[in-house]
Specification:
single chain, 217 residues, alpha+beta, 9 helices, 4 strands, 50% helix
Amino acid sequence: MFKKEFKINKFLSLELRGSKTFIYVNGKEFTQCRYVLLNIPIDDIEQYNAINSIDEVLDNLDHSLEENSEALPPGTEFWAHCSNLQAWAEREYNVDLLDSKISFPLLKTLSQEGDLIAKKVFKEEIAKRLMRGEMNSIAYLIDLGYLKYFTQEELNTIFSSDNCSLFKNILDAFKGEDTDQFHEAYQIYKDIGVYLFSAIRKKLKQIFDTDNIEDLC
């Protein structure tokens, strides 16, 4: 079988095997690349000028390359993957440059394999998404359990910041007429509560276990 390899850094590399491209982290297969490009229609390019991240526009893109895996020759697709991930790595794993469904799991795995930059960026980028209140991204991050990598104090700092837009966005969704957004916001609010109030629940359990109200202090 025909093979071609491309090393991005000490931890990250890609391999073309036959007609398929695979990502490797520290020599271990991470995933197969399913599609490459964000094929933004030229006539609509201006509407994407002010985006904060790739995730904000994914729903509006032409996904023809995702649906048609043979849209590009394997060699061309391989080098496109290499170029995209190399640019991502050179910009210190800026999650805004990739779909979060690949970038966050990849950052997590890089962190676990000892990449110190990835370890730092992993939490920073999650915090940024929480601060910006990006509902789709936050729902995804919660589903993967990524908030458990933060201490209670860190989460309190994020959610109590004047710059955190999450709760404003949740409130806006509650006031709006979009049923899907309402349900998504409600679920996020419930899930966030698990982390926000865990310290309170632990304290209450301690009170009931010891039957000592002074434990509340």
